[in-house]
Structures
1.
Amino acid sequence: MPLALTQVITPSTPVPPGGTEQQGNPSDSAHVKHLKIRSALLSRFWGKDPWERIPRPAARQTTGDSRWTVAQENHYELAAGTRSRSQGQWDIWAAVFGPQGRDGYPAPIWDKQSGVIDRSVAAYWKTHFDLASIVTSNWTTLGPKLAGRMHFFVGSEDTYFLNNAVELFELATGKLDSPPARFQFLYGFGQRHNWYPVTMPEMFTTMADFIARRAPAGTDTSGWRGTQQPPALMLTTGRQIDGGVLMYGA
């Protein structure tokens, strides 16, 4: 039977407006935690099946087992704080990427009880947050600035389905030319959230090398990095599949 939230639990500590923090933002809003928020067929917390309604998962194990559903997560956030003040992931995205509502608080992208999407808010997300849409729509201007300079890594079994957004971004930008995008996409086979393709020291070396090689002509970069070289994997472009390192659980 459908889930329903009939009571609001008052937080023991008042929740201040604003001040949210975020982690793990997807690069394409067509898939946000596995939901296609722009699809008229997927406007609720339930999946489409020929025989029955199936709750949509929001998090999973690498075994494929669901950890919790989209409805459960949104109902939890609503209980923790109304008006997008729970500091949960969906409310964080609403505060950072969404428009301001008529009441002065972040406008929710959907009704947290029913899951019905607000199409005007979803349209705002597309033009202000959807990286794939922004990059592909403005490639004439952005291309010379971004070509070869965007790097993505994600586990193929990301806990929150963020690999879906990365794969969509790869498909969208792979069609770009004048200039070709030449972006880097590293996928950790069978890996979950917080997967890295290299160790943290190697990541810092790669970042320092990237900055030093693109410094303005004549800049003294001798103190910007040590003597270590970035791993060969981190100097590639296009798609790569790797084992990598799991830094911490999620």
2.
Amino acid sequence: MISTTQALSQISPSFEQVLSIKSISNPEISPDGNNIVYEVRAVDWKKNRYDTELWLSKRGDTPFQLTNSLENSSNNAKWSPNGKWIAFMTTVSKKNQIHVIRADGGASFQVTNTKNNISSYAWSPAGNKIAFLQSEDKSKEEKSRKEKYGGYAVEDEEYSLSQLWLADFDPAYLNQMLLPEQLEDSVLKAKRKAKLLIDSVDFTITNFKWSPDGRKIAIQHQPDPLRNSFFKSDVSIYDLQSSTYKILVANPSFDGLVDWSPDGKSILYATHLSDSTSNFYLNTYLFRINLDGSGNLELAKDFDENVSGIIWNSAGIFGVARQKTKRSMIRINPKNGKTTIIANGLQRTWDLSFSDDAKQVVYTGVNDTDLTEIYKSDYPLKTASKITNSSNQIEGWLTAKSEVISWKSEDGAIIEGVLLKPQDYDASKKYPLMVVIHGGPTGTSVPQPTPSYVYPILQWLNKGALVLQPNYRGSAGYGEAFRSLNVKNLGVGDAWDVLSGVKYLEDQGIIDGNKVASMGWSQGGYISAFLTTNSNKFKAISVGAGISNWMTYYVNTDIHPFTRQYLKGTPWSDKDIYEKTSPMTNINNATTPTLIQHGEFDKRVPPANAYELFQGLQDVGVETKLIIYKGFGHGISKPKERLAATWHNWQWFAKYIWHEEIEVPLK
């Protein structure tokens, strides 16, 4: 614990300072292992946007900014196989296009000039071609229809298939493209013209990977791009010489392409096999299979969590996976499928990238009191070198002091959570408690120094409160059985977990049980709404993009299978379970003042849920306020509106927890 004198020498950051923290992600190591390109996201308050640019560290030297796109972000960097070029995506005339820049720096060049957005791309192993996905062009048909019939849309039938294209990459002609007006030169435009590889009306392509020898491309495809069609996703192998493809993996439910074996004789794939009724919360299976369909072998059977970010190279199969509040680097033996956790001295690890010889690796990682940094190490792992110094941004701040606690829920389940304390925490005091509930439900709250989004957590801590972030049943990182505990028990079991956590802290004598608040976004908003109508423990609640009525949600959402899987029925087959788990069922019992925050165009949890809760609370005489954030979907993705939502939460809880009237400043 720091002393009071030390605390006084530090500052409590403003909302804007917390929201302005730059974040680091997606490091890519060069093929020879010498250089690292990565993304830095920063806030542009003037233009009300988040800007992502590429930074480069060469041979361990101090990183420098590589791109500056001004109006648009630069992201998704990929090294050319010879390490001389870095490709990346940026927007030109409102379309995502592929650009390249020399590893030595200088001007960037536009490689593609497509009619529609490019969604993903990959260099060929030889480096002379770039494959990419682009949606089919339906502009003529759409224009003709609109001119004759005006605007309308047929549900589940209005979409464009994503197709696989191939562009040549010739560094020789890039030297000619020095002036903006030359981009329209007919010869250069012809050289940039891409070739459509697979012209299929039977499926849309969602992922692809080149074989190591560049002769084949593995593709993941499904009948259409509708969100719920992933259940019908399969994996095929496209042969460039014959221009034909053959289905390799076609289980009844989801099959997803993961990676090629280093020798090009096998692929890795993720699958739900025949399960289309519980795959939202059960583990995904991982298999390897030979190109001729033989040797189909399940891997990682000994590991009870999902492994993500998987890479297969000459040193093995690598990925990362949650382990409670930690996130570990995992190695999977390609031959027997057994898993090993690789310790690297960090609490949480993401974004693995290996050199071509698999002897060097870079990754992002973080400990409980740091911001995310980029690390580089030899493999097998030795002492890693830290490439970035992102944590310097919060030097001198009063940040959160975190610890992981656990308690027993009403049904005996053991629940963990993150308890945040101010730096000058005094064990002899009883503090107000702010409960902040994560979304998902398969999210996970973890210890961190500057938690935020739209909740002013640091400012509440420094005002003299504690914050509890419960990893309620269904959270990721605790195994398949734990993620299944809220099946047919949504809201009810979640409320047990939250309320028992509050009681645990109250029994410990560290909180004031008369000053407790709850809030959350998405699933956290739903749980908060459920607490609004099923508990009188809280003095105030904030519901962010939360479900208020499962029937309302089911018929309006874009992910209908989610509800059917967790509630094991539809409103027409099991009305009782929908009523049992819906906040609106017990609206007449509501007493807690409730703030409701929602995006105007939210398709995941449509705003009808917000209006229904708002009207219900008004009808039963409970103080409530509804704020709609204009132009947003399920999340608030611009900094000014995040600032507004933060102020709205600060104002609401100040009134009911601290009995303070606060005006949101207009300047």
